[in-house]
Amino acid sequence: MPSIPQTFSISDFLTWDRQKQLELQPQFQRGSVWTPQAQSFLIDTILRELPIPAVYIRTRIDAVTQSSIREVVDGQQRLRAILAFAANEIRISSRSPDFGGQRYNDLTQDRKDAFLSYNISTVQLLNASDAEVLEVFARLNSYSVKVTPAELRHAKFDEPVKWAIWNTTRENGALWDQFHVVSLRDSVRLKNTTLIAELYMAIANGLGDGGEDKVSGFYKNNIRRDETYFANLTAIVQKNIDITVGAFGPSFGGTTFFDAPNFLLLVCAVAFVAGEMPSSALTADVDNKRGRGLSHTNAANNLPLLAMAVENDDIYGPYATFVVGTKSSTQRTSSRRPRFAAIVNAIAA
Prior knowledge:
single chain, alpha/beta, 16 helices, 5 strands
């Protein structure tokens, strides 16, 4: 069974659909199950000329009509969304920065042309038998990776809470590309949005327990918050990320302070000593330092000692609680409390 990788434009798929040469739901495929949010995100991706996954089709000849029939083996959800948008049936989410609220007919002619000429990577299975197609379909699905909680939240929510966190994650590409605060592999699975979400949680409510369940709860509890609320919160979050990266990135970019668990606490500590993060049970040991301001001199003298203690795995020295906390479950209050106190004491004026 030969398989031929090719590219076809969206206009090709539209033509095949009009000519009844595209079969979106052969017996081994599911029906339409994508949410409007997922469809909107795909169209936004295409309009930004970013890549989408390849489509697999079986191409066979219909002897009666003497034409080619293309059965979708993998990718029908993507193609359904594309066809529906081209038919003016889908409106892009208002959260899209550039295309929010638009349907196909609302696009400029240049954007329409770019959409229609967008190339989709396609693998054609020529004259494949049903058994061969089913094997290909099974093998494609066997490679599927379980969706992460962050990916699930991104698909489920379409409120300002989701878009504020998503856009802030995108705006801080240096954290993932340059400093690798969250690895590129994990960032692809949207785990970097979890870190940014925890910063929003801390600035809004004070530092507490972390983890995916807590982040999902934050999304749910803030569904009704409007864009103004999150614009104000975003400004504080971004300000403190910028201060942290600007002040400590050059010297500490390769240390524990730019690994996600301690980077979170470092940004929170910067906000805390500026008086921009509320007190909480977790911050009780250093509440007297809240609002005292950031001392670059103290930080330059003290943070290297903490970083060196972690690097040397010094669990008996003066920074043992910080080292042990870094090695243990870094999301729990019992671990965060001593680490946060150590960082605040290290940087506060």
